[in-house]
Amino acid sequence: MTATIERIELSVFTTTARTTVDAHGHRHPAPAHEVREALLTVTDTDGACGRVLAQPDHLRPAVLDKHVRPALLGQDPLERERLWTSLARKQRGAHGGLTDRAIGFVDLALWDLAGHRLGLPVWKLLGGARSEAPAYASTMCGDEIPGGLATPADYAAFAVQLVERGYRAIKLHTWMPPVAGAPSVALDIAACTAVRDAVGPDVELMLDANHWYSRTEALKLGRALQELGYHWFEEPMEEASIASYRWLADQLDIAVIGPETAWGKNFTRAEWVTSGACDILRTGTTDVGGITPAVRTLHLAEAFNMECEVHGNGSGNLSLLGATTNGRWYERGLLHPHTDFDAVPPHLHSIVDAMDEHGIVRFPDRPGLGDDFDLDHIKRHTITTE
Length: 386
Ligand code: LLH
Ligand code: MG
Known about the structure:
The protein is an alpha/beta fold. It has two domains: 5-119 and 375-385, Enolase-like, domain 1 (2-Layer Sandwich); 124-362, TIM Barrel (Alpha-Beta Barrel). The chain contains 13 helices and 15 strands. The strands form three sheets. Strands 4, 5, 6, 7, 8, 9, 10, 11 and 13 form a nine-stranded mixed sheet that branches. The protein has a four-stranded antiparallel sheet with strand order 3-2-1-15. It starts with a strand and ends with a strand. The relative contact order is 0.15. The mean pLDDT is 97. The structure holds ligand LLH and magnesium ion.
């Protein structure tokens, strides 16, 4: 008899973090402190489980009860395309209550469950295009921390450390509000220049600056980046304005890449391609609503002879990269001189994206997405289960 989905639970637990987010959502280093994380678990009638870390704000009890459980309970967990479509179609009537992220977490859990049922890592289940990928170092945003990322010289010194660690590509996130004096095109150009001077011509460099520059500010910054031989220019303006990106891409030689935060899943990505708003497309499991629509996006770009970069870290994005050759880098971050990205948090036995000294990340052999959860720790530190 076909196994069907029996339980969908969200467990909120405590763990330790060494980063925090500012008033605008940008991550910065912090002393070790207790935080709440959540684990979404989907269990079928044979006892097979799919698990993924999720953000409880997107999967509140009402969202689980009104949208997720009615769409999934009693259904075959292997029919991911059908389940994703039924959830995505609930979004219209949910009036914003069922986010792309929420359906993304559910989709990831279903892929993890499928991997466990079949004894395969998800990247192989998706087609297995390659077993490793180079990582790029993605820095945190600029700050005012002494010896952190407070000055162009700080970025240059950190870039040298990153190259020594093995990275062959670095993406700068520069200063954004609420940091005093941010944003500043002049300061962004100074940091990008200092980094290029420090690492030389052979390291690939990218910039993700303030997301609310005007067209003329973005054009000035983009022209400076192409002079410095930067590889791509990311999200310098509000992404809802596709016409602004077409205007920018038409005038620059440097590759304009996007979108990251634009809503509308794979459908919006198709609009970016056909509008000529970007030279390299982007996708990502938390950006477009899971692995299922992200695969569609990768194939869409490929059919237009367009590269598609995977945004963000984590096991889902790593699995996607293993399923395609049409995405060059794994985004490893966010990195900062005062944090250790390789440190293992208490709710894991190991990190999924360990990198060697040549800047290469190998895709996990474990079945499912490959996360190495310490389920005992999570159980002992669970505060609520919905
Ligand atoms: O604002 C930040 O901290 C970063 O921009 C972050 O959102 C990161 O995910 C990103 O943009 N990567 O490309
Ligand atoms: Mg970005």
